[in-house]
Amino acid sequence: MKDINKLIKEAQQKQLQAxxxxxxxxECVAGIGGIALGGLLANCGDGRQxxxxxxxxxxxxxxxxxxxxxxxxxxxxxxxxMAGAPSQLELFDYKPALHKLHNQPCPESLLAGKKFAFxxxxxxxxxPQATFAQYGQSGAWVSDHLPHFSKVVDxxxxxxxxxxxxxxxxxxxxxxxxxxxxxxxxxxxxxxxYGLGSENSxxxxxxxxxxxxxxxxxxxxxxxxxxLPSVYQGVQCRSKGDPVLYIADPEGMxxxxxxxxxxxxxxxxxxxxxxxxxxxxxxxxxxxxxAYKMQVAVPEVMDIAKEPEYIHELYGTEPGKESxxxxxxxxxxxxxxxxxxxxxxxxxxxxxxxxPADSIDLGFRNKCRExxxxxxxxxMDLKQRGLLEETLVVWGGEFGRTPMQENRDNSDMPFLxxxxxxxxxxxxxxxxxxxxxxxxxxxxxxxFAGVSGRxxxxxxxxxxxxxxxxxxxxFTYEFQGRPFRLTDVEGNLIQAVV
Length: 498
Known about the structure:
The protein is an alpha/beta fold. It has helices spanning 2-19, 21-27, 32-44, 57-60, 96-100, 169-178, 188-196, 255-276, 279-301, 309-315, 324-336, 363-384, 457-467, and strands at 76-83, 132-135, 140-143, 156-163, 206-211, 235-237, 341-347, 391-396, 400-405, 418-421, 425-430, 438-440, 442-443, 450-452, 455-456, 477-479, 482-484. The model is unreliable at 29-55 (pLDDT under 50). It holds the Pfam family DUF1501.
């Protein structure tokens, strides 16, 4: 009884606040202009009610499809991020001169004024721990770590001289995915769904899949919505077990009962939105609706067991297992169903040489085997279904690896490894308006720094947005009194690969 009386008292107090002059003057003056503007707009029709005044959920849905600034080549994105940063020197950036310098002391000129995560003193140079050859009509260099991928290099554009200013995993991953090394900015997937909406009202516009046993060092902030409404954040799904936790209704809860409950909740939220116009209220309405629809749609689209045997053979998938291969197949299924942005994170690419698993000559080779076949299959599968032309596929890490061997605390490591490196690394793109079969940018003879075609993280983002139909300088969101954008105050289109 005591609790009930307390609730009644709180309700009465809230009602009085809404009608008292003091509350009106204190809380509502800023909204008077908005009320007047709303009255003017109502005469033109705001699309939120039908002719009978009924509440139209579709008109309020923040994920309805939207038009970009200009017609884009890409309609969706699949981003493959190798968390921990793979070595470009063992994959795509062939440097025969580095072979000749193997085990020699690093020149002082490479160390002066540079910051490294772990290298101290004078390390030794480390020659490539792979064998390279040229493939395809483009003559792209690929190592023997990726025998399957070498077959599709003519579908790919390589950016060989990407650089960043962050040499620790968390900030570098944030920078790579949000355009800022600090917390609080929206991820690129959130920007894309904010700008384009989603083409499937039964699935999230932005889906995240992880493999490798851990999430990225930067945590879930790399698929967060930052200051954008939370409806645009990534929804993490699983390739093992239930795709989404609590996807099934509890015992005794039928679909009709749940529908009635959501209708009642949305009606209350609609009244709240009409009063305060908070976009987060619209997010809450959309999320309740999405959760209800996902209970039917997600189990179907996330079930890879029904795929034909030749598809499982192509990707190397194992239904019921958490793996990068399964996630690549799921990514294809999701974009096929109209999901706008699919983000894959594969953990385990931090090759320091502290143990066999993270050594550049042992563990690294094993990691390459895990991704080689499925990422190749993804490109081939998208192409055979006519989806590659409208799907932008991006692959890369958060930074590169040094041409020197890591010598943590100025002592030799037990296994061969490379430290974090900001001056040069490789990203590749395919499909979605990308000019295929080219390599843009070049590093020096040992792969230490870019000497031509240097591309910043902001340049990569600007190019991705351009392919989706956005001018990155005009694609903004008002926050704290100024327009913010993914590329901050920098970024240029990499015209050579478009």
